[in-house]
Amino acid sequence: MSKIFMEEARSIEVFDECDILVVGGGAAGHSAAIAAARAGAKNIVLLERYGYMGGDVTGGYVIMVPNLTWLNQSYVRGLQEEWFTRLSNIPGAVLGAEGDEIGSTDPDVIHKWEPIWDAVSRVEEVPKRVVRSVYFEPNQLKIELDKMLLEEKENIRVYCHTWAAAPIVENDAVKGVIFESKEGRKAILAKVVIDATGDGDLFAQTKAPYAADSDADTRSTNTAMVFRVCNVDYEAFFRNNQKDPSAFGKIVGPLKGMLGHLIMPLPTQDPNMVWFNNWLGPFDCTKVKDLTATEMLVRDKIRDIIDFMRKNAVGFENAELYDIAPQLGARCSRRLQGEYVMTMSDFAFHREFDDVIAWHSTICRINDSAPIEIPYRAILPRGVENLLCPGRHISSDNVAIDWLNLIPQCVGTGQAAGVAAAVAVTDNSTVHDVNIERVQDILVEQDVPLPRHAGVDPALTELCEEHKYGLYTKLAKLAAEDPEEFAKYRQP
Ligand SMILES: Cc1cc2nc3c(=O)[nH]c(=O)nc-3n(C[C@H](O)[C@H](O)[C@H](O)COP(=O)(O)OP(=O)(O)OC[C@H]3O[C@@H](n4cnc5c(N)ncnc54)[C@H](O)[C@@H]3O)c2cc1C
């Protein structure tokens, strides 16, 4: 047993009091704070341990948002598309198919987009088509996320460099949070707390059940340290790999040997730059030793990797290090086991939820990426009140999490959490008893399409029905006919 040191009890200052306290300013937390303010909440605090917003997205250089559309329709909108509408005014800040190109099966349009990872669909059962997957410049997004908060500065107080250490819980209800900072340990009291830390830092210290057993064959158990490389001709690299199917393996195999973990170059919004995504692990992004190993392992190999690419990869002859992400990439650790736990079956069968808060096309190939419904209960913890948990620690099993913790789902569940918190505060209700129809109405007003809602274009549902909700794949048939065999499926 480890040695124990007993800390003395102490009184701490109440630094602030608010209606809604959002902890974590990543895709989920930033969206929650903005959505709450736009839904009418006037007394919101946002705590963030680093000096900027975006989390993995801006700090971890995760610069690609996949599958915002299905066939020719846009299902993921709201704050997620607002990021790109805003960034489209900045030259060179975003890249993604738009307008008539979306859903196109025209060979010329496919040829244009196929170098861009996930910009063309990938199931065998139907012809390839163009998908709106958006690439962006992370530092430009960092600036834009600040601007969105500044527009709401009357309603949102942002405190950076504050690390939430523990929830304040009384009678199984969260009443606030204790944080650490250069000013010491202090408290913030709140009517509703939103845990958007990504690792359930808060819910894990309440009675709420959670799991931390992601399947070792999923990407969720891997950490990363992303870096960008410039002076590259990415299209030349891609076309060469297309011409010679063994070329990619001849690059990725030795790179993996060098790092000891999978690592590969992927495109960015700039045709002359790549990001090196990597998958280290299984590593746990809540464990100090694994976090340190991730940082040191990758940085130690960056020069060797670029040198190898210069000598061996078409298009990389003049490659140079551009920059290294300011923070490590965390994919998944603790997962909420909330009022509803999402599973692979939610992708393999068409499930409708009365409390739907997001209707998302995802990267899941079981249903050809058709939109699936995410219920409010997937961000609602069991056994504790006044707490909502959107983002990459969403309630799901250890496999489905791989398709649910991507940026669009983190933004979407964050936006819904913010609106739900605002409605609960306005109505003086609990988050468990919140008026879900009101939440859904406000989400639709905030440009979030929801199924069966009178304010949403029926063409979205008609398209799903016409195409059987994507359930024409071999995997969907397997799920229906042989559930045991289906349970072994892991997305490559
Ligand atoms: C390398 C990598 C590649 C990926 N590739 C893709 C991809 O191509 N496309 C895609 O859509 N998704 C991808 N993902 C997943 C996606 O980026 C994340 O799941 C998503 O961005 C998580 O958003 P979040 O807000 O839930 O969590 P985070 O981004 O982790 O945000 C949590 C925020 O909370 C803050 N925080 C944490 N703990 C505390 C605390 N105790 N107190 C105060 N603040 C705290 C953090 O600093 C951070 O700002 C990838 C992830 C990684 C790591």
What's the alpha carbon Rg, rounded to whole Å? 22 Å
Distinct bound molecules: flavin-adenine dinucleotide
Beginning-to-end CA distance, first to last residue: 40 Å
Provide the β-strand percentage band: 15-25%
> Level of helix content?
25-40%
Estimated structural class: alpha+beta
Q: Quick one: overall form?
A: globular
Strands, total number: 20
CATH homologous superfamily annotation of the largest domain? FAD/NAD(P)-binding domain
Count of distinct structural domains: 2
| Proper CATH architecture of the largest domain | 3-Layer(bba) Sandwich
Please state the average pLDDT score. 97
Low-confidence stretches: none
**Biggest sheet features:** 7 strands, mixed
CATH class of the largest domain: Alpha Beta
CATH domain topology of the largest domain: FAD/NAD(P)-binding domain
Number of contiguous helices: 14
